[in-house]
Structures are given as structure tokens and as C-alpha cells.
Amino acid sequence: MSVVLSTRPFASRTSTATPGSTAPAAGVPDAPPAAAAAPAAHRPGERPIPAVIGADLRVPVRGGGLVPYANLDYAASAPCLEPVYAAVTAALPAYSSVHRGAGYASRLTTARYERARETVRAFAGARPDDAVVFTRNTTDAMNLLARCLPEGTTVVVFDTEHHASLLPWPRAVRLAPPAFPGEAVRMADEALAGIDGPALLVVTAASNVTGELWPVAALAHIAHRHGARIAVDAAQFAPHRPLDITALDLDYAAFSGHKLYAPFGAGALIGRPDWLAQAEPYLRGGGAVRSVAETVEWSDDPEARHEAGTPNVLGAIALAAACEALGATGWTPLIREEERLLARLRAGLAAIDGVHELCLWEPDHPRVGIVSFVVAGRPAREVAEELATGHGIGVRDGRFCAHPFVRHLIAARLPGAAAAGGCGDGSIGAVRASIGIGTTDEHIDRLLAALREIARG
Ligand SMILES: Cc1ncc(COP(=O)(O)O)c(C=O)c1O
Predict the structure, then answer these.
(1) Residue of 101 and 53 predicted with greater confidence
(2) Which ranges are annotated Low complexity under compositional bias (predicted)?
């Protein structure tokens, strides 16, 4: 789609508006959070890391009283960045539908929406002719891609995937978890060699269970050697590391705004336009058509074709604002701070008797700020509830929408007593702590102190 109106730089890009000027709603977990977090220290010459909304949320704990919330659940959904909030707020006064109206607000909002598409393209390092389709989230993006596969396509996917990338495919070859990264490449090579016809390799760039980074560049190389394509689930990668579709030679990538500090309901599928332009529209309706008479002429613009109906304009603007804010900060300070906090967390967990971190590969394999673990003999749900109600800490528990992978990591790899904890209902489960912008040393230390207590029993 082309930008229909060129405008001055948006107020949202330069706004100094301070979000949420009301006092914190103490003790009411669903009340609007107030001020932004104090940003982590930056070095001379570096831009400050932007703040997140709601960092001073206070939550009730057992026995009465309120404590500052320690949000260690970023992998599920990250808080809103201050510049994202500002961008959405700035866009609201002229909010209108897009691609439909001649009015000023409609043309301005259309321009903002299409500019958001270009910002997301740049953030992902996509090629100029790649389609950037706004979706609801990664799950939606992968399901859209599944609907666009040429007839007879076989999808090769590892059992380590999140269900969003494991389940949408009509015809899939599932591979067992590889014992080391090189084995992932070897297994993909072997599987792709055995496929006649179109093939797609689907792989995550960063695991939502272990945080481990996958060798996506090597996997892209192998896929292309077999004439196959590769789609990368970047839901957990994009918030933590620079995504470069062109440099990695990926055919498709998908991610979610709500994990990227833009919780306004938009995500993206980015990649080669041909399959998208030829497929049946994802949704049938207005915006996806060129003309409707006795017969329907669908748009051959891959973006319009799959974005029928009024799109989530504010979601797209929010997602683009997050991309801009992270880009403006630069990845060096973000990664340095994350790695410092992650090292503190992992060293602390390793020092607690009875706590076992889940890793697929070597402990020093590169990873993003996500750690899953079990506490021997303690159901994951019980641990998570104790962390929440006793200590004001938010973590995730269960199997993280990656049932085969978590089952493999626990049942196949942990000693019996450790594996026995489970979810508390007899099924296998773990606890996951995940970090991002706004995480502090105090959050990590509070989690570790609480776990020492819980592990002692
Ligand atoms: C690796 C990975 N892929 C896909 C998803 C699905 O994301 P969404 O729920 O935003 O569609 C998640 C969510 O946790 C994830 O961690």
C-alpha cells in the first residue's frame, strides 16, 4: 500500500506528554497504573532507555499491606513503553478509519497507519518489496501464513515451538528437540531433503521456555539450499535483539506488539509478497477487494488482500512507536542491561538447592531474558501463587503454550524428584521468570529470596 498523504512529523514522535498523571491506585490491581519507571542508568553518549508505564504499581500481599509489584512476566506480555503511550495519545484526537475517507482526519490517520507499516519494515530489516501485514499477534500471523501456503506445502517444525508456530500447519513434519544447535541444522537438512514439492521450515528465533537463541541464519541457509522457505517466530526475539530479515535471509518473520511494549492488539507478518498475493484473502470483506459485481476481484496487494475490515490503527501506531523507541535507544544498552540482570537471576537460581533451570542446550548458550525452572517437589502453580500472594511477584507457571517442549525438558531431562513438582494437577509444569525494560535488581533479588524460602519448604 502506498502512503496517501504526506504530513509534517507527527506530534506523537516529538511529544513530551507525561502519561498517567494520576496518583498510583494503591492496592487495586486492575486500576490504571500511574507513573513511568525510572530508566536504567545509561553511559555517556547513549540515549536513556525509555521508561515503562506502571512501574510503580503496588499490589496487595497476604497478611495485608501493599508492596511494589515485581513484574517478571515480560515473556507473556510486556508493559507499555512511555513513548508508545505518548504516540497513541497523540494520534487519538485525529483518530479515524483508514483508506476510506476524504476528510482530513481520515487522511491523516491513513498516513499514520501506512507510516507505521514502513517503521515496522525498517525495524525488522525487511526488504523493500516484502509485505508487512498487520495482524492481531504472532498466532494470527502464523495462521495467516498457513492459509497462504501453496497447495501441497510441507512444513518442517521442531517440537520445541510455541503452539502458535507448531499447530497452524495443514501438513507438518515434526522434529524432536535437537540436542545441540548444530543438530538442529542437521535435522532440518535431513527432513527438507526428504520432501518433494514446496516446503517451509518454521522455527523460533528465541525460545519462550528457555530464552535460548536458535541458529536461524544457518537454518535459513539450509532451507534455501533445498529450495524451501523459512518462517521465523520472532515473538520473543524482537523485544530483546535486533531483527534483520534481510541479513538473516529469512522469508517470513512474525511478532506481537504486546510483547514489544506496545499492548494495543497489533502484531505483524512480514515477508515475501508472492504467496500472500496469490492466496485466498484471510478475511473476506471490505478493503480486500478491487471491485465487486457479479464476480469479485480481490486486491492483489498482499497487504490490502489480508487486512479486510477496519484495521487496528492504534495498535499499528503503537507497534511502530515501540519500534522507533527501541531503535532510537539502540540495542547496546538494552542488551547489556538485560544480560547483567539475566546473569544475576541465573546465578542466583543455580545457588538454590532444589531449583533446576530448564535448558535445552549448554548453560552458556546465548539467550534472551527468559528463564524457566522447577522447584523440586513443589507444584509450579503453588510456587507461582506463593510468589504472588506472599511477595508481590508476577511470574508465569504451567507449560507456556509449548507442551511438547516443556514435557521434553522436564520428563526427559530432570531427575525424578525435580520432575515430580508439575502443575499441581498431576501434569508437568514449570515456573517462568522473564525480564525486560523496567526490571530492576530488586525484582530479581526479591524473587531469589522468596524462592530460597519456598525451596526450604
Ligand atoms: C515464541 C512465541 N511464539 C508465539 C507466541 C504467541 O504470541 P501471541 O499470543 O501474541 O500470538 C508466543 C507467546 O507467548 C511466544 O512466546
Answers:
(1) 53
(2) 14-41
State how far Cα 304 lies from the chain centre.
24
Q: State which amino acid sits at residue 449.
A: A
Q: What are the b/e assignments for 234-269, b being 16+ CB within 10 Å?
A: bbbbbbbbbbebeebebbbbbbbbbbbbbbbbbbbb
Counting ligand 1 atoms within 8 A of each CB, the residue from 236, 255, 367, 434 with the most, and so the one to mutate, is 236
- Rounded Cα distance between 129 and 132, Å, is 9
Å from CA of 153 to ligand 1 middle: 23
Q: What is the pTM of this model?
A: 0.90
Residue range(s) defining the domain that contains residue 258 = 88-328
Is residue 239 situated within a structural domain?
yes
Task: Report the separation in Å between the CA atom of 137 and the middle of ligand 1, taken as the mean of its atom positions.
Answer: 8
Of 270, 310, 313, the closest CA to residue 115 belongs to 313
Question: Looking at the predicted structure, is the pLDDT value of residue 457 above 90?
Answer: no
In a domain, 242, yes or no: yes
CA 436 from chain centre, in angstroms, equals 12
Q: Grid coordinates standing for 102?
A: 476524504
Q: Which residue has the higher pLDDT, 292 or 418?
A: 292
Domain count, the chain: 1
User: In the structure, which protein residues have their CB atom closer than 6 angstroms to any atom of ligand 1?
Assistant: 137-139, 162, 164-165, 204, 208, 233, 235-236, 256, 258, 401
Q: Centre a 10 Å sphere on the Cβ of residue 327 and count the other Cβ atoms it contains.
A: 13
Calpha distance 122→128 (Å, rounded): 9
Atom of ligand 1 nearest to the CA of 206: 1
pLDDT digits (tens, 9 = 90+) for 364-394: 999 999 999 999 989 999 999 999 999 999 9
Domain assignment present for 425: no
Q: Is 183 part of any domain?
A: yes
Pick the closest to residue 368 from 437, 452, 447 (CA basis).
437
Q: According to the model, what pLDDT value does residue 36 have?
A: 52
The β-bridge relationship of strands 252-256 and 267-271 is: antiparallel
Residues 6+ apart with CB under 8 A from 47: 328, 329, 330, 333
Q: To which H or E segment does residue 371 belong? A: strand 370-375
Residue 233 sits in a domain whose CATH number is 3.40.640.10
Residue 434, judged by CB atoms within 10 A of its CB (0-12, 13-18, 19+), counts as buried
